[in-house]
Amino acid sequence: GIMRWLDMLVVGIWVFDVTGSALTVAVVTLLRLLPMLAGVFAGALAERIALKRFLSTALAVMAAGYAVLALLAATGAIQVWHVALGSVLAGLYWATEMSVRRTLAGEVAGASRMAAAMALDWATFSITRTIGPLVGGSVYAAVGLAGSYVLGAALFAASAALAATLSVGRTPRAGRGGNVIVTIVEGSRTARAVPVIMGTLAVSVVLNFFGFPYTSMVPVIGKDVLQATPVAVGLLSSAEGIGALCGSLLLAGLSRPAWLGRFLIGGATLVLIGAFVFGASAIYGLSLAALILLGCGTGIFATTQSTLILTNAPADQQSRMMGVLTTCIGIGQIGYLQIGVLAGWLGAPKAVLLSSALGVLLLGACAWCWPALWRGAAPAQPR
Question: What pLDDT does 94 receive?
Fold first, then answer.
């Protein structure tokens, strides 16, 4: 988790320093997130491969990838396209996050403790969201791009070693029948049959298309509008993690099954409002406060998002449904391209303003189309 956010910030700063193009920054960020479109395939494969093996292998591959990038950066041979390929590799790993690691956490917790488990999981992740950019800004200022890649290789190698020691995780389900495509089709049918799941997926697409792409503009706005140093830009990126930690811990203590849909919509609304204020601000302190508010919404939204899917999906389809969620998030990542184009046309601040305003309108449409989200019905128990 530390490396996920550290890498996104450092790569954004480095690419902007080298190219001076906000659009290029957005495209490289998009390359990291676009593999999430394949999340539905990861979910289907996760039902056929032991989760422990899946997780430890993926972590080891990431460690090797960062080691290669560190060598290229240290020798001065690294190019923008090398960094872009590294972003794709990272994206392929994070595309498995929902269907492998988070599903595994949900299985350990059980249905009765799902909301609290997801809230605490996201709180842990939010701590790394805070630490990562701060460390990233400091490492980049001190030793440059190579240092961040060396740190990435070390962190992922340690994670792979930890994953290899796990003694939990279901084995592949025997007698499943059919191929991966059939599994994906079945998962899509399940999603359409459950209004709460469909509403959750729709809100996820809207927020990932119009809300979260603001992150690719943080290095641009931080350096160009706020005139901030790399360390100060890192603090801006960390502000979302601070807010997300508060939001997820609040939800862990207050969450009730009947309120989950309301929290989903409320959290998404806070994200979009925070992004709008960030785009409108030319004052560092106000921008920092806006990102903390945005982060609080992120923590609430992300926790309820996973919980609603896992508690409303049949028990034998949880991995595939989390894979469908990952793909919907991946569809939303195209928003990084649209905000990059808007930034090239209107400038980064106006691009964030326009994108978040459209997101608010579409979020209202989702609430109207899927009233089951906010009517307060308790989630179905997994079958």
Answer: 84
pLDDT tens-digit readout, 47-60? 667 777 888 888 99
Does the predicted model carry a pTM greater than 0.70? no
CB 276 within 8 A of CB 349: no
Residue 136 CA, distance from chain mean position: 18
Query: Which residues have a Cβ under 8 Å from the Cβ of 38 and sit 6 or more positions away?
Result: 92, 95, 327, 330
pLDDT of residue 378: 46
pLDDT band at 168 (very low <50, low <70, confident <90, very high): low
pLDDT digits (tens, 9 = 90+) for 214-260: 887 888 888 788 888 877 887 887 787 788 778 877 776 665 666 78
Q: With beta carbons less than 8 A apart as the criterion, state whether 42 and 96 touch.
A: yes
- Is residue 191 classed exposed, middle or buried when 0-12, 13-18 and 19+ CB atoms within 10 A define those classes? buried
Q: Which residue has the tokens 């989390």?
A: 322
How buried is residue 132: exposed, middle or buried, by Cβ count under 10 Å (0-12/13-18/19+)? buried
Q: Is residue 104 scored above 80 in pLDDT?
A: no
Give 319's contacts (C-beta < 8 A, 6+ positions apart).
43, 44, 46, 47, 99, 100, 103
Distance CA 295, CA 346 (A): 25
- Output the CA–CA distances (angstroms, integers) from residue 371 to 200, 210, 291, in the order listed: 11, 21, 29
CB count, 10 Å around CB of 76? Answer: 7
Phi-psi region of 72 (alpha: psi -120 to 50; beta: other; left: phi over 0): alpha
Amino acid letter for position 205: V
Q: Flag whether pLDDT at 15 surpasses 70.
A: yes
